[in-house]
Write a structure and sequence with these properties.
alpha+beta, seven-stranded mixed sheet, four-stranded mixed sheet
Length: about 240
Amino acid sequence: GAKPNWLLIKHRDDTARRGYDIAADIDTSVESGRTMDEIARGSSDVWHSDRGPGSATRRRRRAPPAAAVDLAELAIEPMQPTPRKRLAAREGWSFEPAPDGTRALAYVTPDAATLMDGRGRARGGWPQITDALQALAQRARTSFVLDGAVSSDEEGATYHVWDLLLRDGDVLLDEPWQERRAALESLFGRRRVPDVVLVETAADPADARALAEERGWTAVRARKHDGPYTPGRDSAAWLEQRLQA
């Protein structure tokens, strides 16, 4: 509709309680002042205080239809890998081939999908990718933000995904990469998403290099298992080696 939609995200702070379910303790509507039980037993009447002085008007209001959350308004600045001359096998690290192409963050809800570049600008030209991602959100009944790159060849464009930043209102930026990766694999599961693929991971950098060379890609990257996602910064937990041509 004409009114903007908002998504409020509370990051962890000193008073956060991990695992605390606030809905189990507080079930009172901030709009009507009624508990969930009272709402379930009663009607959907809601008092509106904007009728002017002395007005005692009540009206019955239906719940508004589900609307797309404008996740693109978040405009997360992509994390950048730190360059390294060579990547060696290390405990607590995984490795991935780095696809060549245009860096793109995907902001997806069941109602809309947008690809945005590193400067927060919407990128068009790949409707088949955004349509496929929106269909995934509809099937999974969730919203999410992905990080990856779009590459093109004679067969068309492919979105290569390597990270999951948000899902269903849960901010994953501070979560370890290993947990974000598990959540990413869970999101895709066995669902076929045309023109969208997950970037493979390997325990040995040699395997990642072999995959990159096989596809003609020019870099490999290393992921520290407990590394967070740091928007807009070179990450010491995400390293990149450029391959010689």
